[in-house]
């Protein structure tokens, strides 16, 4: 319990410190050197706590307007949550299906080769190339697959969701594939094959059970890949997500609220991943 409180406190301090960086860092116009105003940090922490204590999330600048964060954050939060939630869970399911349960089929080898090619390309380049491809498709066919308008509805969310899923899928599929081939060479797998057990039974009851701890240990990294791409995707595709409070503001309050919201999104997605494992084991795995 004490350790958990310590971790929460450290996270709180670090997030507020990151949010305060634009405030405490300045450039000397004469020498061009950076000046750090650490003495203003206590005031930053005090103002944030006092704003929250009054039941307000503060305000942020949107163009020439000053708007309350509480009035806009709900829609932006759920937009970002939906993108990351679907992207990470889809990457988890796709990696398990192609990496374990249908790994022996030719289509999986083709899928793996395609992902290996994508893995050699930086995420930012993939995102930009995908947008260019979407524009080309619209010019040739007249079918609009993306929208750069914040009020574009499904067109403004489904394509960002696909892009956000690319990096987690690349990482997870490679991890699952490598672990699958390592596990397949273990003695207990050879014994199960020698006993005449079916391949599906072995994959479900033996291989998956040994892969599960490795995948669970990498979930935090997988989510961080999706969150990192979310910053890029929402910014260049004009998605009204939670990163709006971080990119379009220089004040401590909106940046801090945006970062805390990102942390909450990560936690919700992590819980959903663990829930998928739990439901899968309850439905298909015999303990």
Automatic annotation (TrEMBL):
Pfam families attached to this UniProt entry: BPD_transp_1
Parts of the chain that traverse the membrane: 7-27, 77-102, 114-135, 155-173, 219-237, 257-280
UniProt record, GO biological process: transmembrane transport
Family: Belongs to the binding-protein-dependent transport system permease family.
Signal peptide span: none
Species of the source: Cytobacillus firmus (Bacillus firmus)
Subcellular location: Cell membrane
Keywords, sorted A to Z: Cell membrane, Membrane, Transmembrane, Transmembrane helix, Transport
Superkingdom: Bacteria
Membrane protein topology class: Multi-pass membrane protein
Keyword Transmembrane: yes
Stated name of the protein: Oligopeptide transport system permease protein OppB
Keyword check for Transport: yes
InterPro entries: MetI-like (IPR000515), MetI-like_sf (IPR035906)
A cellular component term, taken from the record's GO annotations: plasma membrane
